[in-house]
Each structure stands twice: as C-alpha cells, then as structure tokens.
Amino acid sequence: MTATTVRHFPMLVGGEAVDSEQLLEIRDPQNGELMATAAAGGAKEIDAAVEAAKSSFASGEWSRATPTHRAQVLHAVADKLGERLDELVELEIMANGATIRQATGFHVGYAAPHLAFFADLAAKYEFETPMPRATFPVLGQSTLRREPIGVCGAIAPWNFPLLLALWKFAPALAVGNSVVVKPDEKTPLTTLEFGRIAEECGLPKGVFNVVPGPGPEAGARLASHPDVGKIGFTGSTDIGREVMRLASGTVKSVTLELGGKSPALVLEDADIDLAVDGVLYGCMLYSGQICESMTRLLLPDSIHDEFVERLVARASTIQLGDTRDWETDMGPVVSAKQHERILGYIASGKEEGATVALGGGVPKGEQFERGHWIEPTIFTGVRNDMRIAREEIFGPVLSVIRYGSEREGIELANDTPYGLASSVWSSDNSHALEVADKIQAGSVWINDAHQINCEVPFGGYKQSGVGRELGPHALDPYTEVKNVHLDLSGRRDARPYDVLLSHADD
Ligand code: NAI
Ligand code: MG
To answer: pLDDT digit string (tens) for 426-474?
Structure first.
C-alpha cells in the first residue's frame, strides 16, 4: 500500500472532526503495513470532549428525549452498521488482525444486533416506577425514577474494538447519557466511524465523543475526570485496578471486565470429538486474544492420552494466513508488544518443564516473516502453579493439566485468581449441571464456548471484574435511582414528628 492511500481519522469532539499534532499509526498486524493514521488526544482533548458531552446533556435534546425517539435513532444506527458491514470489517481487521470470517461473524457482525438489543431494552425500560401509595404514617406516594447519570466514559481494548466499546456506550446512550469513548491506541477506527454514522442518523452533536489516545494520559484523565459519573472499562486486570483507583477520587461507579484464565473441564463421560473441537474453538479463536478464552484444559487421567492425540491432530489443521482470505482460520496477534509477551510465556512454559505438544514458536514461511505471527501452541504436562497456567497469555496457547478425581478437577478449575468464564464437557446433562454449580465463574458453558449472547449477562467473579454487561439489566449501571416522595396528607401532626416536635397543643 502506498502512502497516498493511507486514510486519516480525526477525533470526534462536540460533533466536530478535531485534529492534533500527535498521530497514531494504524498498522496491519499481519505485515506491519501502515494502513491509516488517527489523531491522538491527551488530557486536554478529554477535557474538551467531557465539556461537549456535559453541555449536550444539559441541552436535554437527547437526555430528555422520549425513550421511543432514542430507540428509533439507535435502531437507525444499527441498520446503517448492517449496511456498512464490509467496510467496517475492513477497518477492524486492518487494525486488530482478526480474520475476515471472525470480524464479519463476531467482531463487527455482533455490533448491529447488540445495538438493536439495547435500543429495544430502552424503549420498554421502566424509567418511572410508582410505589404503592402509603397511608401510614401519612398519605404519600413515592416514585422511583431511573435517571441518566450525565457524562459516562468508556475505555475500550483492541481485541473487539467496536463491540466492547458498544457494550458500554450503547446502554449509556439508550437511557439518555452523553458519552466520551477512549478507544485503544491501536484500534480507534471503527469507533470513530460509528460516531459519524450515529450523527448521520440523528444523534445530536456532542452526545457521542471519541478521543483516541494513550491510556496513561487520555484514559487516566477520563477515569479521574470530576464531571464523568461512570466508567465502563475492558482490559487487563492491572489497568482495571488503576481505573478503579482513579475513579475513586470522585467516587464514580465502575463496571470492569478484566482478564481471565478460563478452564475447559472435560469430564470422563465427555464426547471426545465434540470436546476436541469445542476446546480448540474456545482457546484458539482470534489467536486466543479473547478475555474468556478457555486457556486451561483439564483432562481426567483416564482419557488424557487419547484426548491429547486427537486434539493435536485437529489443531494441526488450523490454517494460518492472509486475514482477508475467507479460507484462513487464524491470523496474527495484534502487535509486536503482544507477540513478544506471548513468546515470553511460551519460553517460560518450556523453562518450567511443560512439554510442547504442538507449535511453540513463529510459523515458518515467507508470509510470516513480517507481522506478528505465532503458531497454535499446545503444552502438555502443565502444573496449575506454572506461569502459563496462572497468568493471562492472550495468545494461541493452550495449557493441558491432568487430574485424578473429579473433585480434583473442580478444585483446579477454581484455583485461579480469575473467574470470567468456564466450560464443562460431558455427555450427561445432569452430571454437567451438577459440576456447573461448583464452578466459580460468571459464565459456565456446557459443551460449548464463547456463547456471548446479548440476552444474558457477561462478566466475572473474583479478579475478572466488577459488575455485568449485557442481559436484561444492562441499562441499570448507566442510571441513577432517585426516589421522589410526594406528601398527600398536608398534615403536620400526622408525621412521626413527636420524635422531634410536640403537637400536644394542635
Ligand atoms: P490495557 O489494559 O493496557 O488496555 C486496555 C485499555 O486501557 C486501552 O484503551 C488502554 O489505552 C487503556 N489504558 C492503559 N493504561 C491506562 C491508564 N493508566 N488509565 C486508563 N486507561 C488506560 O491492555 P493491553 O496493554 O493492551 O494488553 C495487555 C494485556 O491485557 C493482554 O495481554 C491481556 O492479557 C489483557 N487484556 C484483556 C482484555 C480483555 O478483553 N479483558 C483486552 C485487552 C487486554
Ligand atoms: Mg497496557
């Protein structure tokens, strides 16, 4: 690609395209080619975006519009996302290296239906709930109101740039908030494009602002900004902790979706072929760069060897290649930094005595010389206290751990600081359900993986996060609850005033 075809993306602040001296370079992870540039902001640009969001909120044009109107606008945006799917897919894969199949089916493909889901929720949301009229101690009526918070911030990662930002800004918008989104520095394009589409569809200027920029500057300012009332964040557990600390200064509410080390617990009665495919899908999809990836495979002694043999044979068929080719199964990892980090984990697995049963390095061949490629890698003989079993690798690396009794298998599944997701593999449903009860994780998928469905909540136990996204209550975290009490008695004496004032003479 020549320099003349490199597209430039300004920030979106107050409905205006805003440029800055600081530029982000968007490079294709499969070969390092420069694909686009984006303007980057810091604290100053975040402040301007928060100011624009604040005044758009105060204008009431969006915040006080009817729920039906807001739902209509968001539905129009969802329709446009669907129409422009191919173009958005290209913007996503040029920055994050997903394959065209993954981005069309999942990364971008989920955005329109998920947005429509939030719009539908908002259209029927109970913004006002009258409470039973009380006659004791006096006649009065309380009404519970759900109000938008004001300005909400979203800090998004690079793995599902549009979708994970949308899980935050869409419920916020649906109930009337204004938002400021800080995408990851590598992947701001689809969120910026979303902003343009939303304004074309009637979202008032200033309601949706996007400031790409470095996390420690732009992200940290957003998390600590006194005029931001809520932060939704997805990313690493370390930065999640930092966001929580920054948000504590002004006692903001936070929703955090953080790391994972999810187990795939295969029971003795599992259907092995079904489980082999499911485990590979669970671990290797999008080169393992998914928070809920099933990265620890727990196998009972009795079927261990046969399972590993079939697993390695099946994993060997995974085709690495051009991300824009529909035949490709797996693309590169996102960046040089992640590449180095993953290779470091692979080295640590070898040093700690695990056995490489498949892969374990950079694939051979000319097309893999540039870009950030890693082979699908399977370690056997892993102990649950090794780094490759404890820490989030975020690459195509599966750690196989064997267990004796089922109780031991369940203990190993839960022996992790994380608790985002898990899977249980068994051909006996009641057996699987019994085991699912004992797993400490926000999702337990029985004979399945990556069942991300907007109808059900998603989020983690333990250090995998705080709160839940999606599901029937997805809008609640973007609202404040207000109780408005109306006295209907007009009587001074009928209140329990005698604890303070005497009405003996009344
Ligand atoms: P990260 O946690 O640094 O990045 C996530 C977001 O936080 C980005 O938008 C980043 O700019 C922002 N950020 C960084 N520092 C910040 C700060 N001080 N204040 C506010 N915002 C800040 O993740 P990174 O470095 O891209 O990846 C490192 C590891 O994190 C991965 O290997 C993976 O283990 C994990 N991760 C987990 C994700 C998930 O889906 N749960 C997504 C991305 C990364
Ligand atoms: Mg970081």
So the answer is: 999 999 999 999 999 999 999 999 999 999 999 999 999 999 999 999 9
Q: Which residues pair with 144 in a beta bridge?
A: 129, 483
Q: Assign domain 3-258+464-483 one CATH number from 3.40.605.10, 3.40.720.10, 1.10.760.10, 1.10.287.600.
A: 3.40.605.10
Residue of 236, 237, 343 to test ligand 1 pocket, by largest number of atoms within 8 Å of CB: 236
Residue spans of alpha helices (H) in 228-378 = 237-248, 272-284, 304-315, 336-351
Q: Cα of 398 to ligand 2 centre, how many Å?
A: 23
Question: 287: pLDDT confidence band, cut at 50, 70 and 90?
Answer: very high
CATH second-level architecture of 262-446?
3-Layer(aba) Sandwich (3.40)
| DSSP structure string for 329-347 | -B---S-HHHHHHHHHHHH
pTM above 0.70, yes or no: yes
How deeply is 472 buried, as exposed, middle or buried, from its count of CB atoms within 10 A (0-12, 13-18, 19+)? exposed
Q: Which residues pair with 356 in a beta bridge?
A: 379
- Cβ–ligand 1 distance for 422 under 6 Å, the answer no
Q: Strand 397-403 and strand 294-300: pairing?
A: parallel
